[in-house]
Every structure is written in structure tokens, then in C-alpha cells.
Specification:
heterohexamer; A: 264 residues; alpha+beta; Ribosomal Protein S5, domain 2; four-stranded antiparallel beta sheet; 5 helices; 28% helix; B: 253 residues; 32% helix
Chain lengths: 264, 253, 264, 253, 264, 253
């Protein structure tokens, strides 16, 4: 296709992409961070006291609110001795001119599933301790993630918010005549996402970086440095070397965030 | 309002005439408004009103989409009231229910009275109202914050719309019901006015009011509206002051 | 916007609006009624014998059919000692070229909710007498309102139809081995709707009036003259004086309709 | 047709050969048709057929919407069969179910044979069939009324379509099953024809017919169709007569 | 409408229709078959061993896959002594450029209902033998028909696939501590569909024939030669004589297919 | 991966180091690919991979619809992964669930790396992946077959994408989990690469891998990919050979 038929938007986009690729090749990022440096993360727990757990997270200018509700329900037939975890993301049209009202987009579904996988596969929640009566009644943990302001990297903002909300959530056992108790926790997974710009993988991309990235990679690790979940995204590829370098950075940043932000 | 068998047992006003949260009959819950709290939106506001926490974002005027919704002679106001799943005691399924659709409609209509929509034909002005925590009176809190967010977005308006509610508990007309009062009271009257012209732009009511009680309720709300209107103005001033002082800072650097 | 870009439709609409505002300022209505005069209401009860209750209502040229079904169901958890009321409106495409097929529009939802509110808040139905077994089984009252022909003021036509159908409905207790009995009734609410044309509030607007109105106000009252529900509609405002004048007219017309049309 | 274990116990024809509602095997239920019963629709009709009460409105020809549904060489017939929630013993959830979608399709196809659709390219002719009370045979009643409503709307047609059904109860072929017969009978054959040309435009069948029984059933329905066709015509005449007499009245004033 | 405004597509369609009508008037079909001759039917049973029954059917170049699942469920209230049959058709976009993703089209719904009717009304399955506990638990038979490749006459291909899959299906009674047993069968219905081209009714139309047909008629018969279900389709008419000639052909071809293809 | 209380009781590798289906740790299940199996589609392929049976059809490049989805500078790849209702033990409700939507997305993205989409602006290339029987690893099987079907449709590509998965069972890294291993194992890593350039185009993981185990898993999959890549080529050759011999046959006639 000749450049003639390209729209102004496309030309601007192309220039922006070229510029970000150029500066990253020179070792720089648009906002001055190092490649393996995340934006400042501010976690405001218990923002919604009415929920069993909640956390507002600001990751740079990205802002999400995660609420955790814990309610009684029936267990799945094939796991009569296990509580239930369910995760939902709402990409509210409030958060960006590009988000639309209506049923969850495929982006929102992927977001919810990737966050869910990090929590589920790390066995963060001791689901076996959420049984009220075997095969009849268990606690259901609902994680609802509301995107309020979008400046890139929703996966990490939502994962952090979900983990923080769960760490501070209680099981409302007083509703069944017992005493409320903290949600039983086994592990603390942290997810770090990378964007590939040109041939550079940068951690915690902001919106400008995300928009010009060819590929995205999210790596969730636990406090032992094991990898518990991964997801590659976007229509580009990564090399084996990029993969393992991202894994290493994720393990390192995970430890840091676990300690510095969550105090674990 | 849910009817309970044991309704009469619950006492909402004590011997000293005070309500379950210590308020007098004509006293509002604490209200706090912040302006310009979001980065991406064209305008935004956050309100805490008692236990209510409501965030509002405004986008527009922008080309209305899909095209057949465009009005060739004015902007359409598209308010969308939404409750977060975790905002209420029992988790609410995401997505609009019938209640939310009705509330979105009456809020849109109320704002249309105030906005000079004829200045922006074929566009939509989208007002997203997210209830993060609910404690009775969310529509009124959302509408009050929405007016502020519209100003923050630079949308020209006659005046800001102010919401307020009055109700009846233990047979007495009182201002601004909280959740328990709403559940066990006898009437609720959410209302919104444009203070400068005294126009009523939103009005709903359910329960049971005599003609006289209704007049008392409307009067209570009208007085409160003046007070809330000032809070709206102060919140906007606070933002512009802080912007001014930033600029001052820049100049003096 | 200049008049040049106005469509023919808009110009016609503007002229029509101007005309109706003019004659109302002169004390007249397009069909010769007084401002506080409703159209003739004809109620044809038991139109659908297969339903537990039904009423066809003609309010001028507006025609609706309301059916009441009473079936067994589970009570809500927080009201174990109460039957259930549920109200639905179908704005059938049969009734107007402007009504569309598909899920209920926001107009249909508002209509159903306003009618429901008048009935529910007046405590018309003695829901506490609809319990079959506490916390387990109660009677569910379904009100379904079908709009057949649309010439304005659906709120009043549907409210009247719903009330008439309920007044003549039975509880099919023979299905559970008891005897059928009339639906237990406490109160009889009547809703009167006003349209604001220019600065005049007219009762029971027909379609032409509705289309040029700036605001709409519905007021439901009971037989004691108490106000039990209200709803302002449309993108215009009303004054406090207009509100109370409408309330007074509603109380007056309510008494009249309750007696003349419903024989109560 | 619902299968019941105790099917054989229910006797649908008595010793004198009469059916549970007193009809003979070749007897229709009472049918009454009214024309022009709605104000807003372009054409309308109301039919009572036994316990069935069905209202039909016709709109069009009007521009088909959305545009991609337009056929550049003819009108599309868009019949929509809908049962009121309260029309049946157990409340039906509002909105079209799979049965209603199938019936709407076969009715649309049947009417397309009769209407001169090629005269109105790019338009739709919308036929709304509302079953207000159901008593077996609603599709046939609706289709019969729809033809009349189309004429009332001034839509040019080859001829009116006439619906009729025959079935089998207690092993015997009979005309026009009622609800109990439909529930406990052995076969049902809803059919519609254009009497002038004898064309079959709708045909469905379920149950069990031998080749011979099928012939009997078709013959029964065809004969009844002629009778029903006359009812259609009389209903239309009645409307035009009453209009004439109104005009007469006007003239003599 | 003048021919001038006809699109190229329409003109081609008109010519094709004319051609097929001409050759059928001369006694011929586009693929050389006789009017009452079906295409070759190849049935590949047990294609999906994980299902309780399955059959892949190729009818000429039309290809469908039918799977039968048999699961426990609650009986309908009005038939406490009967298992449940439910039939669904998926017109996969894989099968034709004209099929779209999304909820079932009205064509898919009609297809599923016509196939269902043939099976249900012939009383093929002994539903009364599928009761686990009266009024509480019964076997539910799910027939799911996936259209893989579309060259006309889906009704017959799907009907044949459904019948073949049911004939080879088992009831997984081992799941409730009993022994698996073959799905109990009473009758074997066969459906034959005809397309009317000009004034000729041809059996088992292929896609080219289907596209130019004015009317369609499907006739299902059982092994006694009784008619158990019929459906006329498309916006054309048939005569009484055409109907009975189709019935006779259907009885004849049904016997043939029952024996030759299903070995019954 | 479903967590079971009795997880530790299930032994997935026996004393001789063999898996429950007799495979060694680095052994694939049997794979069979067929090309050009459908008549209507522009390209198609069928794959059997262990107990998985997956059919893929490709349509396009064709004008993308609805229009607003068109990309003016390239084709969009629209892969749609769908499980037949009967493909799994417990019947799956028809229509896409959240899992299918996610898988469709990552498969589309993987294929976009390989296809020269910039050659076909404003078009869509639709890839329909139907899982007829599922036995763990369906997305990988589907993606592998999709590449072949794209070639069959004549779509120009850098190279074919090859899918493969490795996982962990009984604490050991193994290739290509079957259903029981997936249910009771400790990790799964579905991956897809372009063999010629060694690019990773799809990567997902769940469970628990140490850094070292992850490396082993990636290495196992990469080696297997070369083998599967050959199967893809052979399947395509087989089709073209059979076409050639048909042509030969024609010529010699």
C-alpha cells in the first residue's frame, strides 16, 4: 500500500512508533525510566469498607479499584471440598475515550483471565479452607476490578489491586453464626508486564509505550521465585532470550514490590 | 423500599429528636467534593456524601455514535449510572439493570435542562457515573457531582444542577435519608433543582406523603440545595486556585 | 444553528409546538378538553379469562391490555413473609410506527417501573397475605402490560389497567388444594399524568400534546388523598407551584376515576 | 404435543361421535373477525377463534430498516408472531422463543406467496401478530387475520390466505383441534391455502397420519377454508359498509 | 422495477433459475440425477467417541456432524415420567460464506425444530424408559448438529445424522452405579426433502437447486409408512397433488435409506 | 487446572519412567494432518492429535464486515476457536464462553505475526477452528492446523506457525500433556513458534515452574516443533501430489 492512502492518524502513529523505537535503541524511555523500572505504585487499601476487601491502585496515571466480595454459594460438582474464585474486569468507558459501554470486550476478558490465572495458579487463596459444608456450601470469592483511569498496563495494576484486596479481605463468617476471619492466604503472586519496543523489552509500559509495542509479555511469580503464570499478547513475537530475561526481571521486581508496596 | 413484617419495631428517631446517626431532622450527612480527579476524562469529579462514594467522568462534546443517534439541532446528554459490583452489601451482577437504566434516564433529562445543548449539534456529551460505594441517595450524589464534572469539562451551562433528597421516618419529614432510614422509613423524595431559577429538573417519589408533608419535604430539600450549591462552587474554586498557585509557582521560578 | 440546516420534519415540529403553546396560553386544548380534564376511560375487565386477572383499557385512542398471572415461587431472602410483585411493559411495535421490536427500551422500562411504584408504594396488594409457606413458597403476582395502540399517556392507561386487573384478579389456590380467593387488596392508587405545554400543565395528554411537551409529571394518590409515588419526565423543568397544582388536581381526578370508572 | 403416560385414558370423542366441546368431526369452532380495530396501524384485524384471541397490525410498505435487509426487487414480508405473557396457562416470558421464531418464518413465507411484493422494492411490510389468549391453532388464526389486515392496509394481493387445521383424536381425523384435543390427540396439521388457486402456502404436521388419514385431513381443511374465506370477506364488507353509511350520514347532514 | 436497476448478481441468479427450470421441465437435473433420486449418503458412526453417540454424514458435498450427549436432569413438571429430548443446530460459518457467527439464525432454528419434530413425533426414542427417579431425575438427550460443509439439504443430512447417532448412542448409567445400556429406540424416522423447481419436485436438492427453488417440502415417515412430520418452506406454494406425490416418494425413499444406509 | 483434594494420590509416571499412555517424557502423542478437507471453504485442514479432533476452515482475504472493523493498511486475522457441545465430557453450551474468546484472541495474534497482512488492506482473513473432540492441547492443535489451512487457502505467509505444549507432572517436565495429565499435573505451557526464525508467537502458562524447569519445557517444545513442522509440510505435499497425479491422469487419458 502506498503512503498516499495512509490517513493522518496512521502517519502520526508511525512517527510516534519510530521515535519511541529510536530512543529505546539508545537506552531511553519516554518518561525517563530505566527499562526494568516500574512506575510508582500507590495502594490504598480498604477504600470500599462495604466490601469484604478492596484496594485502589495508582500505577503512574493508571488507576483501578478492586473490590472483593465473599458470599455463600454451592461448590462445583467436581470440587466439593473447595471454595470458588471468580474474577471480572470492567473496562469502564469512564477510563478512556476508547473504552465502550456494553458486555466485556475481548480485551477485558483477557485481562480478567490473566489476573485470575496469576492468583489461581499461585494457589494464593487457600480455597480448601473456604468450605462451609462439603459438597453443599462454600465461600465464593468475587474479585471485581474497575478500571477508572487508563494510562497503560492494566494487567499489573489489576493484579496488584486484586492481591492487595485479597490480603486485606475477611470471610464474613458472622453471617453464619461464626466469627469473621481473614481470608486464608498461601502465597503472594506479583505480575510484571513487559512491552517490546523495537527490540527492547520495557517493564510496566505506560499507554504511549503500549500503543507502539509489537508484543507484550506478562510474567507472574511467587515469593519463591517460581513462575506461576505467563501470557504473551499483541501481534508480534518475542525471542527465547527476551522471554528469559523478562522472567528474571519479573522475579527481581516481584520481590521488590512484594516487600516495598505490600510489606511482605 | 423493602417492606418488613417487623417494620414498626425499628425506631429511627430517639427521645431527643436525633436520628440514628446523630443528625437533626434538617441536617445533611457530610459532603465532600473534589474536581478534576481523573486524567483521561475531559472533566471529572468525585463526591463523598455520607457513606456514598461516587466518581463521575465527562467526555464530550464529541461526535455522537452510532450516527443515527445524532440530533441535528443539539447535543444529546448520555448519562450512564452504574453501580460497582462491590458497592452494595450483596454483590450486584455487573452491567445495567432496570433500576440503573431508569436512573440514567432521569439524570440525563435533568442535565439536559441545564446544558446549552443547542451549541453542539450532532454531538454527545457522555456522563459516566460510577457508584463505588452505596449508602442511599446515590442518584442525587451522582447528579450533584456530574454538574461539577461538566463544568470541569468546560461545557457551557445555565447553572449547575443540585440534587438533594428528603423523606419520612417515624412519621416525621427529614432531610437526606441514610441507608437504614431508606430501608425502614415511609417515604423518599429525590429531587434536583437549578438554584438560580428554582426550576425542578428531577423529581421522583415513593412511599406516603400527605399534601402537607410533601410541602415540608420540598422546602427542606430546597434549603439544603443552596448549601450544596456552595460546596460545588468551592470545589471548583479549589481546583482553579491550586492551578493558579501552580502557575504562580511557575512564574516565580 | 441556522434555520437553513433544519429538516422539514423539524420545521413542522416547531410550528406544531408553537401552535399548541399558543392555544394553551389562550386556555384551550387541541381536542377541546379543559386543562384538568382526562379523556374518556373505558375499562373492559376479564378480557383474557385464561389469566388470573385482566383488563383492557381505552383512554381516548390509547389502548392497552393488562394481564395478571399469579404463580407459585420462592420469596426473596430478605422478605420471607411476603409475596412478590413484578411488573413488565411491552411497547409492542403494533402500537406505533415509532416502537421497535427487541428488548425493552428505556421508555418501556421507565413505564413499567413508574406503574409498579404506584402499586407497590401505595401497598395496594396485601403481599403479606400471599405467603404459602414462610421463607419457602409464596404467590408471585406478574403484571404484564401490552401496549396495543398508542395515542399518548401510557403511564395512566397502564396504571389504570393494572389496578383494574388486580382488583378483579384471583389467587389460584385451588392449584395447591385450597380454594381460589380474590387477590387481597388494601388500597386503590390512581395515577394522573400532566404534560407541560408552554407554561401550562395539562392532564392526560394525548400524543400530539405529549410530543410538544417540555416536561411530564405523574402523581399517584390513594383514596385518602395521600401522594404515594411521583415521577418527573422529559428534558424540561417544572416550578414548585406547578408541582403542587398538579398534586391537587391529581387528588381530585383520582377520587373521580376511582368512583366513576372503578366503582370504588 | 406433550406425551403423557396416561394418554390412553382420556376420551376425546363420546359415544354419539361428539367431541369434548360438542362439535362434530367436521365442525369448526366459532370464528369472529373484525377489521380496522386499531388507530395507529396502517391496517388491522382482530380474530376470535374458539378461545383464541389474536390481534394483527400491519405497517407498510415502508422503507426497510436496517438498510442491508432491503431487497432491491421486492418488498420483504416481516411477520412477527408473539404470545402475550398472560395468554397461556403458565406465564410465558416476554420476547420471542424458538417456537415463535419458526412460526413467524412460516407465516411470512405464506403471506409472501399472496402479496404482490414486486410492486414495492426496498420496502418492508410488517405484520405484527399478537396472541392475547391462546387455545390451540393460534398460528392459523393469526395468519387468517393477517390476510384481512393486509387488505385493510391496502396492500395489493393475489387473494387472501386462509388458515385451517385438521388433526387426529381417538384415531379419527377431525377438523380444527382445540387445546385439550391438541394436548391429547395423535396428530395436528396446520395448513394455509389461497382459495382461488388452491395453492398450499403453509403446511406443517406432527404426530402420526397414514397416507389415507392425511388425505382426509387435507380435504377437511380445504372445505373449511372456503367457509373461513367468506368470513374474511364479510368482515371486510362490514367495515366498508359502516364507512359508507358514515359517509351517507355525512352527506345527509 | 425495470431490468436496468437490477444488479449483476440478480441477473445471473435469474439466468441460473431459468436454466434449472428449463432442464427440469425437460426431465433433467443439473447433476444428472433422477427427480426422485437422492445423493449418495455416507454415514460414519461413532466419529466422536467422547460423546454418548455421534455420526458424521456426507450427503453429496454436504457434511454434518451430529453428537448426542446423555446427561442427568430434572423432568418437566407436566411429564414427570419422561426423559427429555433437546435438539440444536449450529450453522457454523465454517460451512459456507453465507453463514454468520452469532446466535442461531431463524434458518438454524427452523432446521433444529424440523429435525426435532421428526424424531419426537415418530416417538423414535422411548422417553418413558429414561426415568431415573419419577418427577426428580431423568436422562436428558441432547442432539447437537454441527454443519461443517454446506451444499444444500441440511434437513435431510441432519435428520439422518441425528437418527444414526441416536441408534448408536448409549445411556451412561454407569455414572449412577448401574450399567450402560443402548438408548431405547421404538421407531426409525427418515426425512426426505423436496425442492420445487418450476413445476417439478426434486428430492434431496443440492445447493444450486435449493437456491432457485420456489418451495421446499420435507416429509418424515416411519418404518410403517406413516407420515410423522412435515414442513413446507420458502416463499412459494405447492399443489395438493405435489404434496401427495412427495409423500409417496418419501415413503419409498425412506424404506430404501432405512435399509441401505442404516441397515434397518 | 482443577485442584483436587486427593491430588497427590494420582500417579502419572510409573516406575519405568513411562506416562499413563505409555509415552516417554519427550514423546508426542500421534499426530495426523489432512489438507483441503472441505468444499466451500477457501482453505481447510483437519488434525488429529492424540484424542483431539480439530477441523479448520479459512475464508478470505475478503472485504471485512462490518466496515468499521476494516484496517486501511492491512488485513485483520479473525480466528474463532469454538468447541462443539459434544466435544467434552460434560456437554458445553453452544456459543463462545470467556475461555474461547481468550483463545481466539491469542491464536489470531499468533497468526498475524506469520501472515503478510499488509498485502490485503481492508480485508479479513477468517479462520474457523472447530474442536470436534477435546483431549487437552486443543488450542495448539487448532493453531497448527490453521497454519496449514491458510497455506491451502493461498494466503502468503513468512512461514507456518507450529504449536506445541510442555508441562509438569509428578514434578517432572514432559512434552505434550494429555487430558489426565493436564487435570492432575502441576504446570502447562502452550507455545507456538515460527520455526524458520525461532520467534515465539504464542505463549501462555499456568501452574508452577522453577526457572530451570521453564527452560527445559521451552526446549522440549522447540524440538517437537521441528517435527510437527515436517508433518505440516508432508500433509501439504500429500495434497499437491494427489492433485498432480490427478492432472497426470487427466493428461494421460
Amino acid at each position: 500500500m502506498s503512503a498516499v492512502s495512509k490517513s493522518a492518524d496512521e502517519i502520526v502513529y508511525g512517527l510516534r512508533r519510530e521515535y519511541l523505537e529510536k530512543i529505546s535503541a539508545e537506552g531511553n524511555r519516554i518518561d525517563g525510566r530505566k527499562f526494568d523500572e516500574t512506575r510508582q505504585a500507590v495502594v490504598n487499601i480498604n477504600f470500599v469498607p462495604r466490601a469484604e476487601g478492596s484496594a485502589e491502585v495508582r500505577l503512574g496515571d493508571t488507576r483501578v479499584l478492586v473490590g472483593v466480595k465473599v458470599e455463600q454459594g454451592e461448590p462445583f460438582q467436581d470440587t466439593p471440598n473447595s471454595g470458588i474464585l471468580t474474577t471480572n474486569a470492567e473496562m469502564l468507558p469512564m477510563a478512556s475515550p476508547t473504552f465502550e459501554s456494553g458486555p466485556p470486550s475481548e480485551d477485558a476478558i483477557e485481562l480478567a483471565r490473566v489476573v485470575d490465572r496469576g492468583i489461581r495458579e499461585s494457589k494464593m487463596i487457600a480455597l480448601d479452607k473456604l468450605v462451609i459444608k462439603e459438597a453443599e456450601k462454600v465461600w465464593v470469592v468475587f474479585i471485581d476490578m474497575h478500571i477508572l483511569d487508563y494510562d497503560g498496563n492494566l494487567i499489573d495494576a489489576c493484579s496488584l489491586g486484586a492481591v492487595a484486596a485479597l490480603l486485606n479481605a475477611k470471610v464474613p463468617a458472622s453471617k453464619i453464626g461464626a466469627e469473621d476471619y481473614p481470608l486464608p492466604i498461601n502465597h503472594v503472586p506479583i505480575t510484571i508486564t513487559f512491552a517490546k519496543i523495537g527490540s527492547i523489552m520495557v517493564a510496566d509500559p505506560n499507554l504511549e509505550e503500549e500503543e507502539v509495542a509489537s508484543a507484550r509479555l506478562s510474567v507472574a511469580t511467587n515469593e519463591n521465585g517460581d513462575v506461576v503464570a505467563m501470557q504473551k499478547g499483541l501481534s508480534g513475537s518475542i525471542t527465547q532470550q527476551e522471554l528469559f530475561s523478562a522472567v528474571d526481571t519479573s522475579i527481581k521486581l516481584g520481590k521488590d514490590i512484594r516487600k516495598r508496596v505490600l510489606g511482605r | 423500599m423493602i417492606e418488613l413484617g417487623a417494620q414498626s419495631d425499628i425506631k429511627l428517631i430517639n427521645e431527643e429528636g436525633l436520628r440514628n446517626d446523630g443528625r437533626k431532622f434538617n441536617e445533611l450527612r457530610p459532603i465532600r467534593i473534589e474536581v478534576g480527579v481523573l486524567n483521561r476524562a475531559d472533566g471529572s469529579a468525585y463526591i463523598e456524601w455520607g457513606g456514598n462514594k461516587v466518581l463521575v467522568a465527562v467526555y464530550g462534546p464529541r461526535e455522537a455514535f452510532p450516527k443515527h443517534t445524532q440530533n441535528p439541532s443539539r447535543a444529546i446528554i448520555n448519562a450512564r449510572y452504574n453501580m460497582a459490583a462491590f458497592s452494595v452489601d450483596e454483590r450486584k451482577r455487573p452491567g445495567p439493570d432496570r433500576r440503573a437504566i431508569e436512573i440514567s434516564k432521569v439524570i440525563s433529562e435533568a442535565l439536559e435542562v441545564a446544558v446549552f445543548t443547542e451549541q453542539f449539534p450532532r454531538t454527545s456529551i457522555d456522563v459516566y457515573i460510577e457508584v463505588l460505594q452505596a449508602d442511599a441517595g446515590t442518584r442525587i450524589a451522582g447528579l450533584t457531582a456530574a454538574s461539577v464534572a461538566l463544568v470541569d469539562a468546560g461545557i457551557p451551562m445555565k447553572d449547575m444542577v443540585v440534587g438533594c433528597a428528603a423523606g419520612k421516618i417515624d412519621g416525621k419529614v427529614v432531610l437526606d435519608l441514610n441507608k437504614e432510614e431508606d430501608n425502614f422509613g415511609q417515604a423518599d423524595l429525590p429531587m434536583a433543582i437549578i438554584p438560580r431559577t428554582d426550576e425542578i429538573v428531577l423529581l421522583q417519589m415513593d412511599g406516603n406523603f400527605s399534601r402537607e408533608e410533601l410541602e415540608q419535604a420540598v422546602e427542606l430539600s430546597k434549603k439544603a440545595a443552596t448549601y450544596i450549591s456552595n460546596l460545588q462552587r468551592e470545589a471548583l474554586m479549589a481546583k482553579y486556585k491550586s492551578q493558579e498557585s501552580e502557575k504562580e509557582g511557575e512564574r516565580s521560578e
